[in-house]
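User: Here's a structure from my thesis project, written as structure tokens. My advisor, Dr. K., wants to see whether a designed sequence matches the one we expressed. Can you design one independently, without my sequence as a hint?
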């Protein structure tokens, strides 16, 4: 399995790369090759006085590459120019990556929905599963907040086709997962099930699949706004990562009101893993 690790060479992105436990978690789910990607903005030129961003980035990537190779992975580095999320997606597509990882400091104490622009844009456009690794805010040498990336998962589902696609990632996440909370949110604004459907029974079926792999599970049906209730479940169960499909039933509602998954990326306390629709969908 190949993974992209996107970095802007900030302390936040360095925290993910240099955290031994995070790297061990990636190894457990089958990652063998990590591609470090940093993007130089198009408006930064090598000839600008006193600036050699490309050379500085190559030197930093060389150091990161040694860390990754010492952890047992094959490592490759890419220094490219352009719009960050577009170039990251392009490389992920070109190499056949199974996962993109990016560090993010998350919400600002002053602004509840502020996240890094690249993380936000990747949440909207990613072509492969995206892991947003939450980093401490306000620290000169920040660390990851929940380093056991996949140990305790909160899986949120509206029972859509793409939610099922997100659930399928447990085929490899299970090697690093001990506990899963399965959550469905019923909402009158955008009902996702027929009136005679039984969400508890459907969650129970999913739980049985996970239990057959030796994973401890619990289920919860909540009522209200999907993003609010998923985040309330995060506060209650304290997972290391929330797992969710990046599209649900109502594409029109997403265009009008914004994506639930993007809201979760912006507001979650811990890590978030988004699974996009199939590229052939």
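Assistant: Designed independently from the structure alone:
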């Amino acid at each position: 399995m190949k993974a992209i690790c996107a970095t802007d060479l900030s302390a936040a992105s360095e925290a993910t790369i240099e955290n031994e436990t995070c790297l061990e978690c990636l190894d457990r789910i089958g990652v063998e090759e990590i591609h470090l990607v940093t993007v130089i903005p198009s408006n930064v030129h090598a000839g600008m006085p006193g600036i050699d961003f490309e050379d500085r980035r190559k030197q930093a990537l060389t150091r990161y590459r040694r860390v990754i190779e010492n952890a047992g992975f094959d490592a490759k580095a890419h220094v490219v120019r352009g719009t960050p999320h577009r170039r990251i997606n392009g490389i992920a597509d070109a190499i056949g990556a199974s996962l993109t990882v990016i560090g993010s400091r998350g919400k600002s104490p002053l602004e509840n929905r502020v996240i890094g622009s690249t993380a936000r844009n990747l949440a909207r456009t990613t072509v492969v599963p995206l892991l947003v690794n939450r980093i401490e805010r306000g620290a000169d040498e920040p660390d990851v907040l929940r380093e056991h990336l996949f140990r305790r998962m909160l899986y949120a589902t509206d029972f859509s086709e793409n939610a099922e696609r997100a659930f399928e990632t447990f085929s490899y996440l299970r090697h690093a997962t001990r506990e899963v909370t399965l959550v469905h949110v019923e909402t009158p604004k955008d009902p996702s099930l027929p009136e005679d459907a039984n969400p508890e029974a459907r969650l129970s079926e999913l739980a049985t699949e996970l239990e057959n792999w030796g994973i401890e599970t619990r289920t919860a049906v909540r009522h209200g706004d999907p993003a609010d209730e998923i985040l309330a479940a995060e506060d209650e169960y304290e997972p290391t990562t929330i797992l969710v499909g990046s599209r649900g039933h109502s594409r029109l509602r997403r265009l009008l009101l914004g994506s639930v998954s993007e809201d979760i990326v912006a507001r979650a306390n811990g890590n978030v893993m988004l699974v996009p629709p199939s590229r052939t969908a």
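When you compare it with your expressed construct, this may help: The chain is about 40% helix and 20% strand.
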